[in-house]
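Researcher: Re-running this chain for the archive, since the previous output was lost when a drive failed. Same request as before.
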Amino acid sequence: MKTKEIASLLGVPPSTLHDWKKNPEKKNLAAILTAMPKEIALQFIKDATKKQAPKMLLATVNCSIGNTKKHLKASDLKKLLLEQKPETPIEKYALDVIKTEATYEEIMSFATYYRIPKKSLSKILNSIEVEHSVRGELVEP
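Model: Regenerated structure tokens:
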């Protein structure tokens, strides 16, 4: 790629690339960018900035479950939050962990990513909001 293409792609002034070529630590980066086709660089940036699935709620639940064979998958957690009818003891425990240990942000990011309606979360969120408001920790209602 040319200097102008690299500058516009990365949102830096063209002089930055020239500075990188002089700096021994960033010299290789400048060489790679110069040799890289624009299409590959665009794909690399797209992949790097792709929205990642939120994993904190899943981690919170699974860290409380000692037996790794009984850990839930994201799809299991989604189903549990959509239906709110735990069928197994593990699902009941997971729902209890979400109510007591998960943060509002963990639940909302998971629900937003997996498009879980807020009505489905009402029981869980209401109990969390009450707990947080009592402790004065709730930032977002």
